[in-house]
Amino acid sequence: MNFINLPLLTALTFGERIKMGLQVLVFGMAVIFAVLILLWGILELFRIIFYEIPKKKAAEKEPEPVVKAPEPVVPAPVEETAEPETSDEVIVAAITAALSVVMDKPQTSFRVVSFRRTASK
Questions:
Q1: The model's pTM
Q2: What is the secondary structure of 52-115 as a DSSP string?
């Protein structure tokens, strides 16, 4: 049981076999692209039916809520003291500022109670 007709292929020249192979290749690629275009069209139709039309209907029924922008956090005024800040106070301020940036919270939401120096290498 042979699916390829060997006498037909042996009767063809090399150029005719290449031509037939290219025809099959082009036909196969055309079928694949046609199916892909059909699937794309179906997906676009689904997007319009199931996404855009309900979205327009919902927008007509309910007005969009007004969202207020959050008010910026204004830091408290710094009281100037007669004595200069010690290095420990500067370090605590730097640690607090770094933690507020990393945690994405205002500096007033936490407090640095203590810190300990470690041996540097």
A1: 0.40
A2: IHHHHHHHHHSPPPP-PPPPPPPPPPPPP-SSPPPHHHHHHHHHHHHHHHHHTS-GGG------
